[in-house]
Structures are given as structure tokens and as C-alpha cells.
Amino acid sequence: MKMNAYVAGVGMVPFGKHLDKTLKGLAGQAIQLALNDAGLDRTQLQAAWMGNAAAGVVTGQEMIRGEVVLRGMGIGKIPVVNVENACASSSTAFQQACAMVSAGYYDIVLVCGYEKLFHEDKARSLGAFSSAIDVEDPEGAMNVVKKLAEAAGEPFDVAGAGSSRSVFMDIYALMAKKHMKQYGSAVEHFAMIAAKNSFHGSLNERAQFRDVLTVEQVLGARSIVDPLTLPMCSPIGDGAAAVVVVSERKARQLGLRNPVRVAASALVSGWDFEQAGESVGALAAQQVYAASGIGPQDLSCVELHDASAPSELMAYEYLGLCAPGGGARLLESGATHLGGRLPVNASGGLLRKGHPIGASGCAQIVELTEQLQGRAGARQVDNARIGLAHNGGGAIGLDAAATVVTLLVRENFR
Predict the structure, then answer these.
(1) CB–CB of 354/319 below 8 Å?
(2) Contact 358, 238 (CB under 8 A)
(3) DSSP letter assigned to residue 40
(4) Which residues carry out catalysis?
(5) What is the CA radius of gyration of the chain?
(6) Is the pLDDT of residue 140 over 90?
């Protein structure tokens, strides 16, 4: 979908373990940072889209999550849309908010993604992930894993899935094994991605993990499920990120410096595709490229959904950053490292920045906005002009249940 909306301000709290902070407190802090960045007052907001995935399971807050957060800040009266779409919750909220602004319904709106996943009862945290599949399937998540095992030609062995680890790690592991058999990628490539993103994350003051890992350290770390070691898996976390979106008219009135335009954004849900090479992510990418007239060759930087290290490698291919099967070669070339031709996950990605699922999509928009405006500090991408965000969520069949791809462009008003 072609868009014409602008990012006026962004805010984000450091991701991590915040047992001493409330969900309202985390979200409120990010929202205030975004309003300050935009130079706007909360009374100027005309509507809000609030993205959260797991509060019902983890904290018990259901139904009016966004209203509770905003009322705690003294914000009321305006329409509040609560968006829950697994790990793609706040990217979905952003896509929908931008569509409404582009259509002319609002001039100033808020988007916030927020989540608390850490809990003294670990079963609650794991339960949040286990619910992002079809729970009415008689075999539940195990059926998803079983289908993926069959597709990968692997034995069906899921000891510990959903109890000692997120069932999604089994899903990612089987996708990785299929890619290894089909294209020759190796566990060393996945370790290279984890090491790369650890270096990027070390430069990000808001990242959950800031230590730099070598490929050897990643390979030697504790195994989660073959072929994934701990640093190849995104961690759970608490956090919040917020974005103030405005119309072109309002952006000009405000005299935004280095305005960032939302050029296109697509939300695609899973389906039972049969053709090789089809996927939710590929379709979403194709739609934004077609709507914007921008292609993968035009991109300056990418923030993509590296819920596991193999996920990043596979995303290189279906986002069109390289040909199918070319992900390993693209990685080996150094192109996706800071200083390379197309840095990917300069923020540290989900692997190092962290993955408070409802906040991850908005956090990508925060990172790309700062990159395009030249204020990303030590991790700044040289001459960043066009950024792509890719955020997936849940699992249906053999793919994500929902995926959002968004293109942001640095503009100069005349």
C-alpha cells in the first residue's frame, strides 16, 4: 500500500529485564520521549494505535490495554485502537495508523508498541509464545513442528518444545535445516550473523545485550535445539517504543527537519501457498516495492525480524536482497555488516537489542528513523536515505501468521 505519512518523533526505552517497572510505566516513558522528539504536546494527539501481544497472559491486562496506558498519562477522549498481532503487533499498528493519516482522517497520531515478558513464573512467558499458533488444532504447536519436520526431511523430535524453550525455536531450527539441505548454508553462517549483530548491538545503548561475541563463542555456546545455540536465539525482554506520525500538511506546518516519509507499508497474513519461493515475507516485500517504485537495490539499511540467526539469512533471500540461496554468500561478502553495502540490523536486531514482542515492530521504525536522520551515533550507516523494516509474527502452516514490511525515505521539503 502506497503511503504518504511522516514520522515526526520517536522514542524508545532500553530493552531488558524490568521486573521493577510496570507495563504502563514503560509505555508512558517511550510515548513521552516520542512527543518530546516531535516537539508536540499530548493534547495535540488525535488518535492512537497501541500494539501489545502478551499482556493478557503475562500481566493479566486485557481488553483496554491502550486506554489504561494513555489514561495513566492523562490522555483521554481520542480514539484508541488496541492492536494484537503476535510479534507483528506494533508494526501492524504503525501500518494501520499510517494508512489512516495517508487517507486524510488524522493529522497527528500516536503509535506505541509495549511489552513485559519477564515474569517470576517462566511458564507465563513461554505461554505467551505457545499461544501464537492455532490452539484449536488438536495437535497444537506440535502439528506445526511436525509439518516443518516433514518438509525438512527431519525426524519428529520435540522434547522440551514449549516447556523448557519457546516452541518457535523448534520452528526456526527446522526451517534452518531445510535451508541447509536445499542451499548448502551451514551452522557457521548462523554463527556469523549472531556475531555480527552482537557487534552492532554493542554500539546501541538501548540494546538488551552489549557484549561482543566471536563466531567461535557463538558456536561453543549452550545448545538450545540443533542447530541453534543460545546466541542464535532472540531473548525475551521488556520494553516499549513509540512513534508520532503526522500528515504531509502537518509535517510542513511543523517545519520538520530531515523529515522521514513512510513511502509504503504492507500487511500480509499467512495462507496455504504451494509454489516454491512463495512466502508471507516475499509477498509483503513485493507489494511495497511495487507501491513505492523502490527496489532492494535502492536500500541503505534494513531492520529485519531475526528472531533466530537463520531467520535473518533466509530473509535476505525473500526480501530480494539477494537471489534464492544467495544469503550465505551475501553474508560472507560483508555487505550486511556496518560499513558494508547494505547493513542489516545495525541496532543489534532482535538477537541483541532484544525482543519484547509487542514493542519490536515500533523499535525497528525508531532505529530506521534515527539512521535516516543521521543520529544513530556509533552505529550510523553512511548516507542512509532509504530503510526497510520487516517484522513477522505467529505461525500458521509452514510460515508466519502475519508479516509487515515498511519502507521509509529521508526527504527534503522544498
Answers:
(1) no
(2) no
(3) -
(4) 87, 355
(5) 20
(6) no
Of 6-15, 52-61, 289-298, 344-353, the poorest mean pLDDT is in: 52-61
Is domain 2-120+235-410 annotated with CATH 3.90.1150.10? Answer: no
Mean pLDDT computed over 14-24:
95
User: Smallest Cα–Cα separation from 389: which of 87, 65, 169?
Assistant: 87
Residue 56 to residue 213: CA distance in whole angstroms: 35
> Do you know the residue count of the chain?
414
pLDDT score of 274 more than 70: no
277 residue type, one letter: G
d(CA 127, CA 236): 12
Handedness of CA 229, 230, 232, 234 (dihedral sign): positive
CA distance 283 to 192: 27
DSSP E strands in 31-96: the ranges are: 47-51, 80-83
| DSSP character at residue 297 | G
Distance, CA of 125 to CA of 100 (rounded, Å): 33
Q: Which residues of 272-291 are buried (b: 16+ CB within 10 A; e: fewer)?
A: eeeeeeebbbbbbbbbbbeb
Residues 6+ apart with CB under 8 A from 409: 260, 261, 263, 292, 294, 372, 385, 386
Q: State the DSSP string of 323-377.
A: -TT-HHHHHHTTTTSTTSSS-B-TT-HHHHH---HHHHHHHHHHHHHHHHTT--G
Judge whether residue 155 has pLDDT over 80. no
Q: Phi and psi of 150, rounded to 5°?
A: -65, -40
Q: Hey, what amino acid is at 70?
A: L
Q: How confident is the model at residue 37 (pLDDT cuts 50, 70, 90)?
A: very high
Residue 146 has a pLDDT of: 75
pLDDT of 185 higher than 60: yes
Please say if the pLDDT value at position 345 is more than 60: yes
pLDDT at 370 exceeding the cut of 80: yes
Answer yes or no: is pLDDT of 275 > 90.
no
Burial class of residue 153 in the structure, from the number of CB atoms within 10 Å of its CB (0-12 exposed, 13-18 middle, 19+ buried) = exposed
pTM of the model: 0.95
